[in-house]
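Standup notes
- DV: blocked on the single-chain target, sequence here:
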Amino acid sequence: MQNAELKKKLLLVLFILLLYKIGTHIPVPGINSDFLKSFSQENGLLTFMNTISGGSLSSFSIFAVGIMPYITASIIIQLLQMDIVPKLAEWSKQGEAGKQKTKKLTRVITIVLALLQSAGMSLMFSRAYPGLVVNTSVWNYVIIIVSLTIGTILLMVMGEVIDKKGIGNGISILIFAGIMSSIPTNLSMFAASEFQGKGLDFIAITKSVVLAICILVLIVGVIHISQAYRRIAIRYANQGVDGASGQVRESYMPIKINTAGVIPVIFSVAIIMVPTTVAQFFPNNSVARWIAGHLNYHQLYGGILYVVLIVLFSFFYAFVQMNPEKTAKDLRENNGYIPGVKPGKPTEKYLGGVLGRLTFVGAIYLAIIAVVPLVLGNIAGLPQQVQIGGTSIIIAVGVALDVYQRIETSLIQKRYQGFL
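- DV (later): unblocked, structure below
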C-alpha cells in the first residue's frame, strides 16, 4: 500500500485528537460546572487558556490545567542547560542518551508543576466561584487535584506519542486542536456581540469585512515569515583513497528567518499568564489588582512585556535549534566550509552573526503580527475571544505549516527510496 506508514501516522494523530476532544468533556469529580457558565465573558488571559485547551477550563474538565505545566517545565530545563546547571549542560551534549535523561527530568518537573497548578486552580476557582466545589472537604480537594494532574499527564503522554509515532510536534498539535475547536464558539460570540438585536447593521457588516481581511493578511504574513530563509553556500572537499583532495561538491545551508517557529509565542504566553492569572483571584490585594490590570497583554505594559518575551525567546530558541558552534564543528568534520570563511571559530562566528540578524528581523515581524490584532481589537471594541485571535492564528497557521512540511518531506523521502 503506497505511503502506508504516513497514513498510519496521520490516523494515529487523528485518533489522539479524538481522545483529546473526548477528554475536554469529562468533568472533574466533585465540581458543579454550572457556576462557570459566564466564565468566558468575565476573565482576561484566562480566556486564552480556555481557547488553547479547547474549552476545558470553562467546563472544568480533567484537561482544565492543560499542557502549560509541560511547556513551563521545558522552558525551565532549556534555560538551565545554558551552562547554569553543569549536569544538564552535559546532558545536552550526550546525544540521544542525554535527550532521554532530559525527557525524564522534564516529566518529573511537569508532574510537580501540574500538582501545584491544580491545587492553586482548585482553591482559587473555589474562592472566585462559591459553590463550584460541591464538597469543600480535604478529601474532595485531593480528588480534584489528582484528577487535574492526571489530565495533564495524559496530555503530556499524548504529545510524546505524537512526537514519537505520529507526525509533527505533539504539544503544538494539541494546542492547535484546542484553538481550532474553539473557533465556532468564538465566531458565535462575535456574531452575538455585533449583530444580536441590530439586524443587518452597516457598521457591524463593515467591521466583519475588515476583520476578515485582517485575518487573511495575518495568515499570509505568518506563512511568509515561516517559509522565508537565507541560503548559505557550502562546499565539500571529497577526499580520494590516497588522501588527496577530489572533486568539490557545492550545496547550501538554508537558515530560516523565523527558525524558532511558533514556540516563542507559546512560551511568551505561558510566562505572561502566570502572574496575571494568579492576580485575578485576589481582587482585594492592591499589588494583584495592578498586575491584573497592567501586565495583561491587552494593556500597554503587558503588551510591551509580551513583545520583549517574544523577541527574547525567538533568539533563545533559534540558537537552541541551530547551535553555531555545533554546526561549524559538523561542517569541519565533514570537510565542509563556507567560501571565504575559515573553518572553526571564524565559521562559528559567521553563522552566529547571520542567525542573529535573521532572528532579529523574524522576531520583530513575529511580535508585530502578534500585537497588531490586539491593538486593532481594542480600538474596534471587539470581544476578548476575537482580540486573542491574532496569537491563536499565529500558533494555528504555524503548526499547520509545520505538519504540511513534514508530510511533504516524508512523501519526498518515500519517492526517493522508491527510485533507489
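- Follow-up: The longest helix spans residues 345-380.
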